[in-house]
């Protein structure tokens, strides 16, 4: 199985690239942000709780997020692997993910990090905020807080996967199609060599 973790700061292009990856490699896309937004839309208990954090650009607490992700991983499927998008975001989440996968006799194959500088992230998210109704895209302060949370709590995971020789970096400052080609080529090399 091919289990990919697509990683990087808010607005780097994780969701955009995930759409290409799921089709090309037949992966099951698990985006914790999308799952939370779906729950917020449907006003579930989980959505009501998560919204308090998401609207401020804070992380939803680990115990809620890990439990939710674990349940989503259990659904039966015919996929060739998982594509994790926006998870893990803390060391605790990464360790839990390792446990979930181990129980399935699986592991993360690669972490692909899309590298984009802060100024570009802010501009992309503010632009999207003009048309999306994502509360966390609506003002610069919340966007900057999301980036700060990424730096303080999430970026450390690069090290976590680097130590396992699973970390791959992609320059995210080019067209969507260019970034896609770079990611495909990393995965194709990985698959040839393993
Ligand atoms: P989440 O939904 O994961 O959001 P995020 O990581 O903050 O980032 P985005 O999804 O906004 O960006 P993206 O990297 O997917 O980029 P996209 O492709 O959309 O999380 C939201 C919130 O949920 C979190 O803040 C937290 O509160 C909570 N949460 C989620 N997971 C959690 C977890 N594991 N633990 C705790 N809390 C959690 O692209 C962005 C824009 O840029 C788009 O408009 C796109 O068209 C454009 N774009 C993309 N690529 C390019 C390019 N190459 N050139 C120009 N524009 C581009
Ligand atoms: Mg996303």
Mind explaining what this structure looks like?
57% of the residues lie in helices and 13% in strands. The chain has 194 residues and is of the alpha/beta class. The longest helix is centred in the C-terminal third of the chain and has 18 residues. It is globular and about 45 Å long. The model has no long low-confidence stretch (mean pLDDT 96). It binds BIS(adenosine)-5'-pentaphosphate (AP5) and magnesium ion. The site of BIS(adenosine)-5'-pentaphosphate has 30 residues, from α1, α2, α3, α6 and α9.
In spatial order, strands of the major sheet run 2-3-1-4-5
Tell how many strands the DSSP assignment holds.
5
State the end-to-end CA separation: 11 Å
**Parts with pLDDT < 50 across at least 5 consecutive residues:** none
Strand percentage, roughly?
5-15%
Q: Report the oligomer.
A: single chain
What is the helical fraction, as a range of percent?
A: 55-70%
Question: What's the total helix number?
Answer: 9
Largest sheet: 5 strands, parallel
Structural class: alpha/beta
Cα-atom radius of gyration: 16 Å
How confident is the prediction overall: mean pLDDT? 96
H/E element string?
A: EHEHHHEHEHHHEH
What would you call the shape?
A: globular
Provide the list of bound ligands, each named once.
BIS(adenosine)-5'-pentaphosphate, magnesium ion
SSE blueprint:
Layout: E1 4-7, H1 14-25, E2 27-31, H2 32-41, H3 45-54, H4 62-74, E3 81-85, H5 91-103, E4 110-115, H6 118-131, H7 140-154, H8 157-162, E5 167-171, H9 176-193
Parallel strand pairs: 1-3, 1-4, 2-3, 4-5
The structure holds BIS(adenosine)-5'-pentaphosphate and magnesium ion.
BIS(adenosine)-5'-pentaphosphate (AP5) is lined by residues 8, 10-16, 32-33, 36, 53-54, 57-60, 65, 86-87, 89, 93, 124, 128, 136, 146, 172, 175-176, 179.
């Amino acid at each position: 199985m091919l289990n990919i973790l697509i990683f990087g700061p808010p607005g780097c292009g994780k969701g955009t690239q995930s759409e290409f990856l799921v089709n090309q490699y037949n992966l099951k896309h698990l985006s914790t942000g999308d799952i939370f937004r779906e729950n917020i839309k449907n006003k579930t208990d989980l959505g009501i709780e998560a919204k308090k954090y998401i609207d401020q650009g804070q992380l939803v607490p680990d115990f809620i997020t890990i439990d939710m992700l674990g349940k989503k991983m259990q659904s039966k499927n015919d996929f060739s692997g998982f594509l994790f998008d926006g998870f893990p975001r803390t060391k605790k989440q990464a360790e839990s993910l390792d446990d979930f996968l181990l129980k399935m006799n699986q592991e993360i194959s690669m972490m692909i990090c899309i590298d984009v500088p802060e100024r570009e992230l802010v501009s992309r998210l503010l632009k999207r905020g003009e048309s999306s109704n994502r509360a966390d895209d609506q003002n610069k302060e919340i966007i900057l807080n999301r980036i700060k949370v990424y730096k303080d709590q999430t970026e450390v995971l690069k090290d976590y996967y680097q130590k396992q020789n699973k970390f791959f970096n992609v320059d995210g400052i080019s067209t969507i199609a260019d970034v896609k080609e770079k990611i495909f080529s990393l995965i194709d090399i990985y698959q040839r060599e393993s």
